[in-house]
Amino acid sequence: MAGAIVAAPKRRSRRRGGGRGGSWRPMAEINVTPMVDVMLVLLVIFMITAPLLTSGIPVNLPQTKAEALSEPTEPLVVTVNGEGKIYLQETEVPMESLVARLQAITANKPDTKIYVRGDKAINYGRVMEVMGLVKSAGFTQVALIVEQPAETQTGTQIGN
Question: What does residue 88 show for φ and ψ, rounded to 5 degrees?
Answer without folding.
Answer: -105, 115
